[in-house]
Amino acid sequence: MRKVMLILSFLAGVLSLKAQDTASIRQKAVKVFIDCQGFCDLQYIKDHIRLVNYVRDAYESDVYVLIVSEEAGNNGERYTLIFEGQNRFKGRNDTLKFYTKSDETDDEIRSDMVKYLKIGLTWYVAHSPLVDYLSVGENLPKKTEKKVVSTKWNNWIFKLSANGWGSGESSVKNSHFGTSFSASRITNEWIMDFSIRGSWDFSSYKITDNYTYHGKTVSNSFNSLIVKSISDHWSVGAQTNVDHSTYRNINFGIDFKPAVEYNIFPYSESTVHQMRILYAIGPEYYSYIDTTIFDKTKELLFRQKLSIAYEVVKKWGNIDLSLNGKTYLHDFSKNSLSFSTSVNVRVFKGFSVYTSGSIGLVHDQLFLPKQGASIEEILTRQQALATQYSYFFSAGISYTFGDIFNNVVNPRFGN
């Protein structure tokens, strides 16, 4: 028994020394901060890349990794991984990109993410005390053959969807049905996007034992967008919309707007910053369900639009700003102006401020019915109501403090 206790004590001492040695090694590991805007599986990444230390603040890191996701032409995603060296690795930067398919699972995407993170972090780990624990492998196919890329669909992507839901109580019932079909083709030179959508909403409200209000809202639309790339800063295109909406008193509406867009930054840098200025102008024709407040049952008008959008994603945070203005050419007083913003900024170590919101001035509701809306239609939002403005706003702050390291993965209780 005494011998057993001595052996166990010896093993415990060895394990303790080994744990201390491992902890000492991890203290020397490269400190990494991954900024993926909340869409990547950080637990999975930490579990599969163990030769670095993950820190909770960008300013504490040796390597800041910004991951940006953009929709690609195949309805998949293009992921851009931007590695920025800090402190001892200042000036050592790199960028990697990979593409996913529209039918890839979340598990396949996160596996690709880990693969490219490992590739990007290899240089930094190779110049750290943990280089002896780094291994590099190859996974080439045994037989290298030329593969012919299928051109059966010529870059066209099609999507068909339908959805429905229902809810109710003893005196209230609601149901919805929607369907859509889209076809898109995106290349470096062209964007062609077409979609058809339909939406039907039904409701019934039992007001008294003898009276039940039945409501219905129908919306159908066809939208098309064609864009031609001219240069790394210029694009031209046109948008067409066909619309039917009981909510907006439109029996049939169609508009066509040629447009030109200029991006102050090259489009090739869109993952980190954009500042796009777009101008569009064209005719709009509407026939109305009910006579409008301007005594119109149908009309042909011309409208112009100017929009400015600014987007930047950096290690200190991200900013999205957009300003949109529209006006009818026959009467400039019939106009609308909207501004929206989303800002998230790390002010200093651990402290961030964020805000989002929009505000709009509305003076172009030409479609409003002359007879107005009933009390039931107002309460159940069956028709658009007259307004001169609209707004939304939210803001907040966050402050995080404590241990800078965050390597542990423990998924218990859904953590």
What is the compact description of this entry?
With 415 residues, this protein is mainly beta.
For this entry, give a set of tags.
single chain; about 425 residues; mainly beta; Double Stranded RNA Binding Domain; 5-stranded mixed sheet; 17 strands; elongated
Architecture overview:
It contains four helices and 17 strands. Among the domains are: 31-131, Double Stranded RNA Binding Domain (2-Layer Sandwich), CATH 3.30.160; 230-399, no CATH class. By secondary structure, the chain is mainly beta. It is 14% helix and 50% strand. The strands form two sheets. The chain has a twelve-stranded antiparallel β-sheet, with no helix packed on it.
- Global mean pLDDT: 84
Number of helices: 4
Low-confidence stretches: 10-20, 144-150
Order of H and E elements = HEHEEEEHEEEEEEEEEEEHE
Distance between the termini: 43 Å
Radius of gyration: 29 Å
The portion of residues assigned to helices is 10-25%
Largest sheet descriptor: 12 strands, antiparallel
Task: Give the overall silhouette.
Answer: elongated
Strand arrangement in the largest pleated sheet: 6-7-8-9-10-11-12-13-14-15-16-17
* Secondary-structure-derived class: mainly beta
